[in-house]
Design a protein that fits this description.
The mean pLDDT is 96. This protein is globular. With 130 residues, the chain is of the alpha+beta class. It is 28% helix and 39% strand.
């Protein structure tokens, strides 16, 4: 199993970033891929035009999101990976820390690049222009 740890600091309040992650319209807007997201524990979600799917495992308002996570590329018998997001705000800017684990051997590099290209870069553009 492989894991990824990454972070980005964005010019947005923690509550706003947390809420955007769990809001279908805003998640779609900041990534550019269609998202249908739940704000409830055990609620299911899809992102990037259903390429990504999973379920909310734990939610701490404005602070922490834990989700089961998989893509269409996962083998049917592969277990879900786990995504943990932590939101730390300082002076109106938020450090988003991403910990993605339980990835299949060989997938860490690919999904790390995916997070950078399909989430961090578009989020930086989206939240910097607000």
């Amino acid at each position: 199993m492989e894991k990824i740890k990454m972070s980005i600091t964005l010019p947005v309040k923690a509550n706003e970033l947390y809420d955007a992650w769990l809001d279908s319209k805003k998640h779609t807007a900041f990534t550019g891929g269609d998202a249908h997201v739940s704000k409830k524990v055990n609620g299911e979600f899809t992102a990037w035009d259903e390429y990504i799917s999973g379920k909310n495992l734990e939610l701490k308002d404005g602070k922490f999101i834990k989700q089961s996570w998989r893509t269409m590329e996962f083998k049917k018998d592969a277990p879900d990976s786990i995504l943990e997001l932590t939101f730390d705000e300082t002076r109106g800017k938020t450090k988003l820390s991403l910990y993605h684990y339980n990835l299949q051997k060989g997938d860490g590099k690919k999904y790390g690049k995916g997070w950078e290209d399909h989430y961090f870069k578009p989020m930086k553009a989206y939240f910097s222009s607000k």
